């Protein structure tokens, strides 16, 4: 028995199992689905970046400063062992 998701994914799928990609009209439909998928993922990522305060409503970076742990005088290190 397979588990069914409780909520549908907010990102559309780009299924192609119902298409014959040798037919130009189905190839066009596949392209349309891919573009819809890409647009939805870009929009979702933009919302996430705005919510995190990384970009503003225009899509510009909020800060060009490095995080404190990346500054030259930081006590953090790249060495793990």
Outline the structure in words:
The chain has 81 residues and is an all-alpha fold. It has one domain (11-81). It contains one helix and no strands. The protein has one helix at 24-51. The termini are far apart. 0% of the residues are buried.
Q: Between the first and last Cα atoms, what is the distance in angstroms? A: 45 Å
Strand content: under 5%
Number of domains: 1
Mean pLDDT: 81
Shape: elongated
Helix content: 25-40%
Number of helices: 1
Identify low-pLDDT runs. none
Count of DSSP E strands? Answer: 0
Instruction: Name the structural class.
Output: mainly alpha
Return the string of H and E elements: H
Radius of gyration of CA atoms, rounded to a whole number: 21 Å
The main sheet comes to:
none
List the defining traits of the structure above.
single chain; 81 residues; mainly alpha; 1 helix; elongated
Task: Provide a quick synopsis of the model.
The protein is mainly α and 81 residues long.
What's the layout of helices and strands?
Elements: H1 24-51
